[in-house]
TrEMBL record, chains A, B:
<dbReference type="InterPro" id="IPR036291">
    <property type="entry name" value="NAD(P)-bd_dom_sf"/>
</dbReference>
<dbReference type="InterPro" id="IPR020843">
    <property type="entry name" value="ER"/>
</dbReference>
<dbReference type="GO" id="GO:0016651">
    <property type="term" value="F:oxidoreductase activity, acting on NAD(P)H"/>
</dbReference>
<dbReference type="InterPro" id="IPR002364">
    <property type="entry name" value="Quin_OxRdtase/zeta-crystal_CS"/>
</dbReference>
<dbReference type="Pfam" id="PF00107">
    <property type="entry name" value="ADH_zinc_N"/>
</dbReference>
<dbReference type="InterPro" id="IPR013149">
    <property type="entry name" value="ADH-like_C"/>
</dbReference>
<keyword id="KW-0521">NADP</keyword>
<dbReference type="InterPro" id="IPR011032">
    <property type="entry name" value="GroES-like_sf"/>
</dbReference>
<dbReference type="GO" id="GO:0070402">
    <property type="term" value="F:NADPH binding"/>
</dbReference>
<dbReference type="Pfam" id="PF08240">
    <property type="entry name" value="ADH_N"/>
</dbReference>
<dbReference type="GO" id="GO:0008270">
    <property type="term" value="F:zinc ion binding"/>
</dbReference>
<dbReference type="InterPro" id="IPR013154">
    <property type="entry name" value="ADH-like_N"/>
</dbReference>
<protein>
    <submittedName>
        <fullName>NAD(P)H-quinone oxidoreductase</fullName>
    </submittedName>
</protein>
<dbReference type="InterPro" id="IPR014189">
    <property type="entry name" value="Quinone_OxRdtase_PIG3"/>
</dbReference>
<feature type="domain" description="Enoyl reductase (ER)">
    <location>
        <begin position="3"/>
        <end position="309"/>
    </location>
</feature>
<keyword id="KW-0560">Oxidoreductase</keyword>
Length: 312, 312
């Protein structure tokens, strides 16, 4: 088969052989994520035993059901530990999703990873409920824009940070209630004690401000450390307000945990995709062979929405 | 009535008047806690609307059931936001416990606060289960010695830190499996990636080591910051292992939350007190009038076990 190699060139690769419980999926489209850029730069190696090929999500058609009861020809979305930038990928059955009614295969390819990331953290870890207040950093990004829609669909009040008036306007259109330009305002001063949950991608440099912005019993969840990995934690401030900090990644989780996340995400988020409460936003499509161009486009920082590689 | 005043002297005080849902308890004995020392030093004021009198736990007999369906003369344990160093105290009904079968009123007075503190954190927040590995700092203290017994009764493996061979031997007798003298050993080097849950009273200075000592999906719970309130948090280390940090206090919680904690503690911990799996350890009794001596004894650091004030 053809696949994208480490140098981001289309190359020959061995078609994956199936392990017990895996199906072979003929890839229709694969999502491009920031983590792929890190992997291409050699900074985010795949977990042990997982493919070297990039690509954390895709959608396609089952070409070989292996030992499972799935049917050849079934259309599926796939949460991957790697391997999506290819014509075929082996996927543990627990990491398959149905195609949400009304969505295309391409739209599904671009929504699996973000949906599982946002739901596993805000839904399963922070346990957000109707009426909660959620602060989302980087609201205009792929994770942020999905999180805004999810939180609004669940009846939460949403504050976002972003770095320009245009990005904040985009967040407002997605439903965000409170807009903070982090270049002009300190979110902790704007929203002291406000947030029941915070979804953060900045990490260390935001840690003290995030603690200040949390409400009693609030939960900070860090899913990326784009600003730096370390920060100062004020445990003394946290105690009387019973605050929690959790840091997670999706990719490193063992397969049974991923299967549980996929099942919970399909249960809680797929209906919101089918009702239109959350709409996928595909900004650009590139043929698989142009993966390098797709990465350059994402890396430019000018992109709003999801970038896809189309395969077959 | 008589009560201990801010200067730790026995003094006249107004007998508490009951608010809706409160009962008046004639105090038989009250537990002495480290937090009381802080309050006496002016560093730990009571929550708004709660008594100025010290004392976070007691046991006694209902003298006036107020608007509740309780009976006059019923023996009860009491989790208090304050007021235990007195002949009478007003207690919200949700903060009453039964006397565990086989325990005296005095033993109950010394066990309510520690049981609710340990269970609310290890049981309700960290969710420890049979087979989990739990690291307990200050294993020989009041919290630590109770936590060791609870964890062993639940089938956990237990590691402790303490500052002397004598204290570690005491922890071993209570059931601790791994003994670490923090003056001679670095617990993070001894137990890298070991703990599913850590119960910490040191705070800032232990934060980086605690993160190193946590197992994947592990949870650090900080309930005191005796070493300092701030530390460095390595979010980058936490992400791939999905670690959580929670800091809590019991006293500042609103009454409905305290009632939920008391109910869960009575459900899960009282049977372990009744079976003898957890045994209260009363080291010293002082008459109420000698509260100052009781504080000096606790402050000396030589005490192992619970100090009680006996009232009636």
């Amino acid at each position: 088969m053809k696949a994208i190699n480490k140098d981001l060139q289309l190359d020959d690769a061995a078609t994956p052989s199936l392990r017990d419980g895996e199906v072979l999926v003929k890839v229709a489209a694969a999502g491009v994520n920031r983590a792929d850029l890190m992997q291409a730069a050699g900074k985010y190696p795949p977990p042990e035993g997982e493919p070297e090929i990039m690509g954390l999500e895709c959608a396609g058609v089952i070409a070989d059901p292996g030992t499972t009861d799935r049917k050849e020809g079934e259309q599926v979305g796939c949460l991957l530990a790697g391997g999506g930038y290819a014509e075929y990928v082996a996927v543990p059955e627990g990491q398959l999703t149905p195609i949400p009614q009304g969505l295309t295969l391409e739209e599904t390819a671009g929504v699996v990873e973000v949906a599982c990331t946002v739901w596993s953290n805000l839904g399963m870890v922070a346990g957000i409920q109707e009426g909660d207040r959620v602060l989302i950093h980087g609201g205009a990004g792929g994770i942020g824009s999905f999180a805004i829609q999810l939180c609004k669909a669940m009846g939460c009040e949403v504050a976002v940070t972003a770095g320009s008036a245009e990005k904040l306007e985009y967040c407002r259109q997605l439903g965000a209630d409170v807009l903070i330009n982090y270049k002009e305002q300190d979110f902790a001063e704007e929203l002291p004690g406000w947030a029941d949950a915070i979804l953060d991608v900045v990490g260390g440099p935001y840690l003290e401000q995030n603690i200040k912005a949390l409400n009693t019993d609030g939960h900070l969840i860090v899913i990326a450390v784009q600003g730096g990995p370390k920060g100062t934690l004020s445990l003394g401030r946290m105690m009387p307000r019973r605050l929690s900090v959790t840091a997670t990644t999706l990719r490193a989780r063992p397969r049974p945990m991923k299967a549980a996340i996929v099942a919970s995400t399909v249960e809680h988020v797929w209906p919101l995709l089918e009702s239109g409460a959350i709409t996928p936003n595909i900004s650009q499509r590139f043929p698989l062979a142009d993966a390098k161009k797709a990465h350059e486009h994402l890396d430019s920082g000018k992109n709003t929405g999801k970038i896809l590689l189309t395969v077959s």
